[in-house]
What we know:
By secondary structure, the chain is α/β, with parallel strands linked by helices.
Amino acid sequence: xxxxxxxxxxxxxxxxxxxxxxxxxxxxxxxxxxxxxxxxxxxxxxxxxxxxxxxxxxxxxxxxxxxxxxxxxxxxxxxxxxxxxxxxxxxxxxxxxxxxxxxxxxxxxxxxxxxxxxxxxxxxxxxxxxxxxxxxxxxxxxxxxxxxxxxxxxxxxxxxxxxxxxxxxxxxxxxxxxxxxxxxxxxxxxxxxxxxxx
Length: 198
């Protein structure tokens, strides 16, 4: 709640309006309700950033199938459901931008990252297919692929080797804003963000 309040205050300080809607991106009904409520309170969705994610660590032969399914549900099904909910409006208005936050783990596999890598490889593929579905409607889709970001998830997953060298969440946010600021005639299909010195 503290984070939510701080974000709401920051948005208001810049003259914006916000609404916080708790939901489950992997649940179709929850996604439909959240998108409908957001549009009712704030108007049409012109930008969607799919950034919800979970991480599960373990080799394939010891990875629980339920953990695997949950990772795929949040990291891959969630962006699919969110995009599906907002795309009809974007297409009819002939404007919109979807940014799917994947990972460099969606470009190459890592030991112990079977579920996470599968979900992020899938998200990269989903982004490419989605782009082909909507680019004729002037809707843009970009897949953002950061390497290690200094987050609580990275700390819990024990793959944050040196937090001082890791990409910061605000670096990712800045990249998203930069993508959104590009003129609509420009179609950024993907962007990789790597640590300078891992």
